[in-house]
Amino acid sequence: MSTHAVHEGRDDDLGDLAASARAELLRVIEASGAWDGDPVWREAFEAVPRHLFVPYYYAGAVSGRQRLWGGSPDPRTRERWVRGAYTDAPLATRMRDGELVSSSSQPSLMAMMLAELEVEDGHNVLEIGAGTGYNAALLAHRLGDALVTTVDLDPEITESARRHLAAAGHHPVVVTGDGARGVPERGPFDRIIATCTLSSVPRAWLTQCRPGARIVTPFATGLAALTVLDAEHAEGRFLHTSAYFVPLRGDSRPEPAVPHRGALPARAREHELFRFLLTLTRGTLDPQEAYALWEREERPVRERYGITVSGDQEWAWLDEPTGPYAWPLPA
Predict the structure, then answer these.
(1) Is 102 annotated in the active site?
(2) Which of 30, 73, 213, 226 could form a disulfide with 209 if both were Cys (CB 3.0 to 4.6 A apart)?
């Protein structure tokens, strides 16, 4: 049985299960408040079937993942596959040499990021990281295929995303290329959304944006929402939530080493907000300095941090871009 059979209702039991599981997922996202800022996104999640974008995925711990496939001859496996496709959880969709290279993000987190993107009718949107194509489909449902571009470095990922999108009835532009370079021929963009973690903001994105454009991207272990002022300037703060994504591939700059935390008190080592500060400032602030700052500033929440891009300089900061706490980021 194919995933299309479920979608087209040729397997009534699984078709009904997919419909009820999707309805439950919508209730979970609604309860999370993820799209409170833009409830129109509910219509997109209701209309776009997630299972078409995950014909298989890997369930379980990293050391013992089981591949769940919608075409399995075992009806119990097919049922697990459908139920899993509509859980509010990230799904590992592509492994290479034991490492995760692509996934379908947690739906409630996707909903929150899309709501924070603050799209309006007629906006031209670039997605960095095609993944399964599910996020591009949600965008295309809201804005139309012609206004959505998604890019990924891996041709296997972009090809499978095209297939999934076509199965769901959507045909946005899918580009194989380095997301750090953007897609200049499809600009200028009103919005950019990334589904991969950055260590700095690619300057190419700013040059491809209209003034006033908004960028929502994972950064460190959080989400940053930046406003583009012009081709050389952007600024914004972090959102309240944590976020863990695979790194942007194609950027040749080496990733700074994660600081050793062994000598720090357990309350800091185990605190998610302290780990965020360490990740954001690694390479410029040693763990003891970070700990002293963290305690002095009463364990600051993510919304107190921000990022500024100005010409060839880029820095993260606490409270104010020109305040006493600022840390350079790789340009």
Answers:
(1) yes
(2) 213
